[in-house]
Known about the structure:
The chain is mainly beta. It has strands spanning 3-7, 10-12, 18-25, 33-39, 46-51, 58-60, 68-73, 78-83, 92-102, 105-110, 114-118. Strands 2, 4, 5, 6, 9, 10 and 11 form a seven-stranded mixed sheet that branches. Strands 1-3-8-7 form a four-stranded antiparallel sheet, with no helix packed on it. A hairpin with a 6-residue loop joins strand 4 (33-39) and strand 5 (46-51).
Amino acid sequence: QVQLVESGGGLVQPGGSLRLSCAASGFTFSSATMSWYRQAPGKERELVAAISTTGGGTSYADSVKGRFTISRDNAKNTVSLQMNSLKPEDTAVYYCNARRIIIATKYDYFGQGTQVTVSS
C-alpha cells in the first residue's frame, strides 16, 4: 500500500532553517506529482509547494516563495523541502502528498505529518 513517511521537523528559531524529507513506497514514485502541505492550529490545510513528476516544474505558495525549495530524487523515492528564513507563521504540521492520476481519476495520499515549530 502507499506509504509516505515524513521526517526532519522540529523546533527552530526565527531565521533558521530546516529540511523536511518524505520517503515514499507502495507506488510508482516517478509517476506521481509530489507536494508539501501544512496545517496550522485552527486553520485549513494549505498547499506549500509542488513538484512535477520529473522535477522540472515547481510551484510555491506566495508566502514561502524565495525561502522554501522543493526537490525530489526519483532514484531514491524521496521528496524534500528545504526551508530557510523561517518565520513564526511557518509553524504548522507539514504533510507530504502524492497525487496519482489513473484513468483520469485523481488519487491523493498523505503522510502522517511532521511538526515544525518556529519560536524563540
